[in-house]
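ESCALATION

Customer reports they have been waiting on this structure for their group meeting. Please prioritize. Original submission:
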Amino acid sequence: MILIAIKIKNHTMSGKLKPVILELVLSVLISYLFNEFVIAELLKGNVGILDSSNYAIQMELALFYAVIQLIVSLFTRINYQTTYSSARLSRGVSNEKLGLQYYSIVNTSEKKLFSYVRKYGELLPARYTYDPLLRDIFFSIMAIEDSNRPPAVRLLERVAHHLGLSKTTGIMQQDGGKPLTDEESVRLAASYIERMWDSYLRTFAKSMQSRADGIAISFGRTWYRYDYRILGEALESSFALLYGDYCGTRLLDANFVFREVKGFEERNHYGLLPDYIVACGLLFGPESNWLSEGEAFWENSYSICLKSDSEESLDRRIALYKEGAGLEDVNSLCEEIRNGGGRVFKVQFANMGFAKVFCADVEKEILDELGSGWKRV
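Update from on-call: job pushed to the front of the queue and completed.
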């Protein structure tokens, strides 16, 4: 009765009867368990029940906090679904479309995001400072994982890890072979998310989207550059697919989280957005070593070339072709040309299909001694 009175006073009563009844039942259950395992023992004079080093009390507290957090998350979610459904229906949208939106309530308030940055920002590698979209991705994933497994649940997971019932722990849900603190999981996740971002950039660089409005991504042997607007807009509509590399499913409606985090970071920079981002990173190790030094990009999904290839005089250009060429064939030829003072400015390559190397100033001896199926075309 007291709980119902408080909810009526605070206008927090759900519009459905079943959730309220369930909340009452769970509240009574928590009170019973607390009375049975804590108060009863204290009345018997067993003050050791409050010893924080006691393994049993750790389990009890973890379960107690986990159940409380479960109730809070459950009814926040129910309230969200009811509110969201009402908002959608008021605009005449069919209720059949609501299911895709019920992913999770993720706290992306400025207060919460500031707390993440303040507590964990200094643990991130230097690359996160120079690559703002990578940073946005990291804190978006952190917001989702923190909402899915709040601190009370993570406490229970660390206890369950000793029993072999949980593998991933910490705010970023990483598997470290031991129970991880939030800080330890952040350090592990930072490296993992960097590899996810590298994979996304490599895929995007070869895609049609990367050339729809100029060259979106270019790179050297130890660095890369991307168009902030193009990549940012792409991520706003595809972050959920990238997040699938982290959580194992690409069907969650997580794009809104990235948009909120990205907006938060942009406000921290006064809304003054960069045009291009340049950061250290090795995106295309073997491929960038084929070419002579300079800024390269993917002309299409199988052609890599230097942006300055127009500097080569037409009368000095030649093309070398090989059917059924493999990666090692291209590596050897390009290295031989460069070591001989020649310049490689474009390579077309389909592994075990064909290779075509465009070059200039190649020594006559190299051309005379072409072997292993290479021919001039």
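Sent to customer with the following note: The longest helix spans residues 55-90.
Escalation resolved.
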